[in-house]
Amino acid sequence: MSTPRQIPISVVIPVKNEEKNLPRCLARLSRFAEIIVVDSSSTDRTPEIASEFGARYINFEWDGRYPKKRNWILINHQLDNEWVLFLDADELLDASVCDALDAATRQTDYSGYWLNYTNYFLGKPLRHGIPQQKLAFFRVGKGLYEKIDEAAWSPLDMEIHEHPIIDGDLGEIPERIDHDDYRGLAKFIERHKDYALWEANRYQTLKSAGADTLARLTKRQRFKYRHIASWWYPAFYFAYTYFVRLGCLDGRAGFAYAFYKFWYFYTIRLLIAEITSPSAHPQEKSAAASLADQALTPKS
User: Fold this and answer.
1) 147-205 pLDDT per residue, tens
2) pTM here?
3) Whole-angstrom Cα distance, residue 133 to residue 148?
4) Tens of pLDDT, residues 217-264
5) Which residues have a Cβ under 8 Å from the Cβ of 34 and sit 6 or more positions away?
6) How many other β-carbons are positioned within 10 Å of the β-carbon of residue 173?
7) What residue spans of 65-184 are helical by DSSP H?
8) 8 A C-beta contact, residue 94 and residue 217
9) d(CA 271, CA 7)
């Protein structure tokens, strides 16, 4: 019996304190030619787990300036393969996804691919709602993640909402990656508090951005940043994902996910108001700080 070929892709997994998620992720990657775990000085067993699975371990110490973690690995480290796949520790590949990625490396028409995901929330897969896509698979040397001037306001050492800017045509892989975080609801809220702060400041930078920057945004990004400060946007997002995109068919988990997305976008709007008019809207300023702080306040 012939041995299946190794998939010629370098899988890069940016992490910090991911001992709960990382073993499940790495266990699905035995077919890939190179696995790299890029850490941010984890204090749990993340480094040991990477070693146990035979992954290449690299620690990243951010200096608060460009580049962040994903661009840093692309710029400063030689990858063994022509293709790179960026995977979070809570993202799981099955055999069908691996086969699709392998087939994609044989194509010459595309420089990158959009990937599709199934989100899990409260332990349940969300079959409906707004679909999640990421441009996380592309040819090495064909692109880098957006460079955003955020040294003065971002505590995040990794590209989160930034998309890669790819030189060449893009395809799409329809097979779905499972996005299933084992760390619980408190971590979800904490993470989205940080994302909300980032989004509010990103909105401010885009208000003064040039046409070239705006042209690089995806259609979804352009719609979001055009309306994210509007009073109706959080309710619109809830209604669209829960009713129009049939998130209601996902039961309790579907409602909870849509509700937390409403909370997320409402928090962003309040933070934008705080940033733009710190003295003119004391009530909104207080509410923004309260909503953001609730994410980190232990519940009895």
Assistant:
1) 887 666 778 999 988 889 999 999 999 999 999 998 999 999 999 999 999 999 999 88
2) 0.90
3) 21
4) 889 999 999 999 999 999 999 999 999 999 999 999 999 999 999 999
5) 9, 10, 11, 56, 79, 80, 81
6) 17
7) 69-76, 95-104
8) no
9) 44
